[in-house]
Design a protein that fits this description.
Length: 279
């Protein structure tokens, strides 16, 4: 657990405290490792994947497993899921309608409400369907993190095997300038979201065992950060090696559009495996 400095010394400290204070509570530890049980009590058997065959159910008893899995896949796959932060350190989700009118895709998020039942309705029908389908929810959808810090906040709130099953991630991170004086010109770019938080987020991404596609969208402010800072900013992602290059989307400001070739060349030189474009 990160140590919190006593007192506030800089803007970076304010963000670090905010980051720690807003972290959602993680899942409770498995009872098998409960301190109350100690070593003497034998661990309880894991019954999460056990169910009784429901002979009365035509769907479950008559359809072959292959057909059932195809149905679950059609219901649960192919979605874009916005992960959002709610009040009281809760995490939530909103299904992206992909219509162009999505408020979160356009940069907002406050007024949209998640519909918790919809995403999990099928999996929560019974234990058998849950066991057969829940993994698909994580492996067959794109998880989009628009709120800064959401990625590292989500991780402790879902079981590790679900986290490991995630294959597609889109991350939006603010890359604006700032008005705060700072002697360290490199560090200054982190003020919008916090350097520690950025590094932690990158570490979490590079350690995702199932990750196949990753898109980082850098959002800019009305003025531009020097392009030289981008490779430095992206350094923590150097260890991200995917089968295909991950995608870097820059703000569509003329300054960045004109510099794409130079940015791309610089990133390649540094061994950062991404495809650059401006959106
Ligand atoms: Zn959306």
């Amino acid at each position: 657990m990160a140590r919190i400095k006593q007192g506030v010394f800089s803007w970076e400290d304010v963000l670090a405290q905010q980051y720690q204070n807003n972290k959602p509570t993680g899942l409770p530890r498995s009872r098998r490792y409960s301190a109350l049980q100690g070593q003497r009590t034998p661990p309880k058997p894991d019954t999460r994947t056990e169910w009784t065959i429901q002979h009365q159910s035509a769907l479950l008893a008559r359809l072959s497993p292959e057909l059932r899995l195809m149905i679950w896949e059609m219901v649960l796959g192919g979605m874009r899921i916005h992960i959002v932060q709610r009040t009281n350190r809760r995490m939530g989700h909103i299904l992206c309608p992909r219509t162009g009118s999505c408020e979160i895709c356009r940069g907002g998020h406050r007024s949209m409400k998640d519909v918790p039942g919809r995403l999990l309705a099928l999996s929560m029908t019974c234990k058998q369907i849950y066991c057969e389908s829940i993994g698909m929810l994580y492996s067959l959808n794109t998880f989009e993190f628009s709120n800064t810090w959401s990625l590292t906040y989500l991780r402790p709130t879902i079981p590790g095997d679900f986290w490991d099953a995630i294959r597609a991630v889109e991350l939006r991170w603010a890359f604006p300038g700032h008005f705060l004086p700072c002697k360290d010109t490199v560090k200054s770019i982190y003020f919008s979201a916090g350097r520690q938080q950025w590094v932690e987020t990158c570490q979490a991404v590079t350690c995702m065992p199932g990750l196949q596609t990753f898109t980082l969208q850098l959002s800019g402010s009305w003025f531009c950060e020097p392009v030289e800072k981008i490779p430095v900013f992206l350094e923590p992602l150097r260890e991200l090696h995917l089968r295909q290059r991950w995608k870097l989307q820059l703000p569509q400001q003329p300054y960045y559009v004109e510099e794409i070739r130079n940015i791309d060349g610089d990133l390649r030189k540094r061994g950062i495996e991404c495809l650059v474009r401006a959106v």
